[in-house]
Amino acid sequence: MLGFLKEPVVVTAEINVNLVALTVVGLISRLWGLCYPRAVVFDEVYYGQFVSLYMKRIFFVDDSGPPFGHMLLALGGYLGGFDGNFLWNRIGAEYTMNVPVWSLRLLPALAGALCVPLAYQILIELHFSHCAALGAALLILLENSLITQSRFMLLESILIFFILLAVLSYLKFYNLHRHSSFSGSWWFWLLLTGVACACAVGVKYMGLFTYMLLLAIAGLHFWHMIGDQNLSNVSLLCHFLARGLALIILPIVMYLSFFYVHLALLYRSGPHDQIMTSAFQASLEGGLARITQGQPLEVAYGSQITLRNVLGKPMQCWLHSHTNTYPIRYENGRGSSHQQQVTCYPFKDVNNWWIVKDPGMQQLVVSNPPRPVRHGHIVQLVHGITTRYLNTHDVAAPLSPHSQEVSCYIDYNISMPAQNLWRVEIVNRESDTDVWKTILSEVRFVHVNTSAVLKASGVIGASLPEWGYRQLEVVGENLSKGYHQSMLWNVEEHRYGKSQEQKEREVELHSPTQMDISKNLSFMAKFTELQWKILTLKNEDTEHKYSSSALDWITMDTNIAYWLHPTSGAQIHLLGNVVTWTSANAAALVYMCLCLWYLLRRRRKIYDIPEDAWQLWVSAGGVCAGGWAVNYLPFFLMEKTLFLYHYLPALTFQILLIPIVLQHLGDHLCRSVLLKSMFSALLVAWFSSVYFVYCTFSPVTYGQPALSLAELKDLRWKDSWNILLRKQ
Q1: Do the Cβ atoms of 328 and 338 come closer than 8 Å?
Q2: Domain interval for residue 571
Q3: Is residue 4 part of a domain?
């Protein structure tokens, strides 16, 4: 039984020294002096705010993308013991001692460092030589812009890491597919492809570009498999299901999980939750939840309520009235009803309270047992403080003359009778007998006499003049003009009225209510709302000093000043290696020209290169040239403020194309020994120039040493570069 002990246990391992060395130098280049400068650098002022909110568990919405990248940055802060207490108010602000700068910048730096060995492995999996793979890795290593972007609390290096990991994983999976389908390693690399794609999309939506590219490549490969007669129908089905599970289902599940963790961490109310619905706000600890906790769920006749407009743009507001009346005549000469004003007010106020009244009864209190209001019921809305009824009639609204004025009715004893009956329509109902619910129900009020719908027109930009205290206009809108979210309202604060006398009722309106009913949103409901806000919430795009167009990126006609030392000339810029960028553009141009040339020649049955070399050329171009195209061209269609760092994912793919083109030229166009020798000499000279430019711009890549005024002027190789010159 113990015979196996007679022989020693031997473990053998293959170590790729190139890979280990590249990883080490990559780590050194990105981690060296990581705490310098100990000050806020460019967009750290933006991402740092979110890290602080994570540390304090305060909810926020970032319209720039999903939460996974933010959570990774917050993980660095958590590992460093950051308490979230720092005021991220300006670039260049010195970090206090409680801010773990090294820890916050660690994950982006590690991601940037690992991109170096990933580039090496990608070219190996594309079946190029170790020399070409080493060249690709060194070009990534010595690219100044990638170094700068990876040394601070920014997301681009993390995005590029997951993009390259997804590409490498798929290539390894595809290469294993030919001889070891459904093996453990086959499944590992396939699943890792899906995980990396999900992480790339979870960091920034730019990750979608590479994800779509890999899905297209996987679809093309499967299409070729369908034509393989050696594969049975069952085998093809298994391959299809495996790819669908790993490349579609798994990324979707992971994407949802990012939001699940995000929402689980951020359970406290904060300033950002005001753009969310009342139901979402009530699910957070503090804020609205503190006010609405335990309110009655079902709205009944006699209920005292506040009505919040569902749209919430450009600000949240509540249905409101006050004792002031519309002016008899407006500035343009049009007349009004001179009734009591009804507005949408963007602040909580006692004048936001309304009482739901049964038109057939006089009482303004909830009966015992309460009689709930259901979809389709007719109600009157009585203003709590002034006791006047919500009314509309055939009089033009003050700012929207094609809509009806909404007022609280005052009986002037003239030929303008009250028209104050409203039909309650629950838009998000499950059945036509649904009860009107606090927070949860989105309600439309349809005027019985005129069929006009109560709408907050001021929500989309119209505020009243001084006589209306600059509050937002409320109108009766004709249903034929179409549906809009500004027509929807939900009950936010709610109590069951108990006081029939007006004096007692006013005291009641000023006091909070406490009843024991909870209203929790499901995760999917919160995810759907948050995802919609991220996709539709647009901050006003303003021209930034360092913004640029996509055309500026190819020739690097722009730069970004990330940091400037307050006294010395030390500064950090996002600037690329000029030789690398120029070579990448040349490689892309040569690749496209050669592809066109080969295609034309092959059409004429002239084959300049062997078939296996052609397949290698096409597959490498599909990954590298395709990766550059899908990560660059979409920016021409985007209406947003663009910066040079948006080009870095595309640049990474373009850099990978350089050694591919160089090896192809050396193998197939330099046929004589003399040409090969000359080509090798040119490569050495070219790579030396890459290293020279890297060293020349290192002071503005790492921020040290500080340069003199003359040295800074010498770095301004292009007139369009904004190198900061300070008189010393």
Answers
A1: yes
A2: 26-262+548-715
A3: no
What per-residue confidence (pLDDT) applies to 372? 92
What sign results for the dihedral spanned by CA atoms 328, 332, 333, 336?
negative
Distance of CA 676 to the CA centre of its chain: 49
Among the listed residues 696, 633, 687, 680, the one whose alpha carbon sits nearest the alpha carbon of residue 658 = 687
490 & 598 share domain: no
In a domain, 556, yes or no: yes
Are 502 and 611 in a shared domain?
Answer: no
Report how far Cα 182 is from the mean position of its chain's Cα atoms: 35
223 within domain boundaries: yes
Residues in the chain: 728
Give per-residue pLDDT as tens, 400-440.
888 899 999 887 766 677 789 999 999 988 888 899 988 88
Q: What is the phi-psi region of residue 461: left when phi exceeds 0, alpha when psi lies from -120 to 50, beta otherwise?
A: left
Please report, for residues 46, 151, 179, the alpha-carbon distance to residue 356 in angstroms, rounded to integers and kept in the order given: 45, 59, 73
Tell me the pLDDT tens digit for each residue of 9-48: 778 888 888 899 999 999 999 999 999 999 999 999 999 9
3-class state of residue 491 by DSSP: strand
Q: Whole-angstrom Cα distance, residue 602 to residue 581? A: 31
Do residues 237 and 354 share a domain? no
Instruction: Look up residue 604 and give its DSSP letter.
Output: T
Q: Are residues 480 and 340 in the same domain?
A: yes
Q: Residues 130-189: pLDDT tens digits?
A: 999 999 999 999 999 999 999 999 999 999 999 999 999 999 999 987 778 888 899 999
Residue 537 CA to its chain's centroid (Å): 10
Place of tokens 């000093």: 545
Q: Are 500 and 573 members of one domain? A: no
Count of domains forming the chain: 2
Q: Which residues pair with 572 in a beta bridge?
A: 563
Domain boundary among 496, 512, 528: 512
Q: Where residue 360 sits, what CATH number does that domain have?
A: 2.80.10.50
- 85 and 144 belong to one structural domain: yes
Same-domain pairing of 168 and 251: yes
Q: What's the rounded Cα separation, in Å, for the pair 396 and 326?
A: 12
The per-residue b/e assignment along 685-712, b for 16 or more CB within 10 angstroms, e otherwise, is eebebbeebbebbbbbbbbbeebeeeeb
| Structural contact between residues 226 and 216, judged by C-beta atoms closer than 8 angstroms | no
Residue pair 354/390 in contact by the 8 Å Cβ criterion: yes
Give a three-class secondary structure readout of 416-468: CCCCCCEEEEECCCCCCCCECECCCCCEEEEECCCCEEEECHHHHCCECCHHH
Q: Is the pLDDT confidence value at 483 over 90?
A: no
Radius of gyration of the chain (CA): 33
Look up tokens 């600890």; give the residue. 285
- The one-letter code for the residue type at 312 is G
Strand 378-383, strand 472-473: pairing: unpaired
Q: For residue 635, how far is the Cα from the chain centroid?
A: 16
Structure tokens at 462: 């119209």
- Whether the CB-CB separation of 359 and 378 falls below 8 Å is answered with yes
Distance CA 548, CA 545 (A): 9
Res 522: pLDDT: 85
Question: Cβ(708)–Cβ(728) under 8 Å?
Answer: yes
Q: What is the 3-state secondary structure (H, E, C) of 680-722?
A: HHHHHHHHHHHHHHHHHHHHHHHCCCCCCHHHHHHCCCCCCCC
Between 506 and 703, whose confidence is greater?
Answer: 703
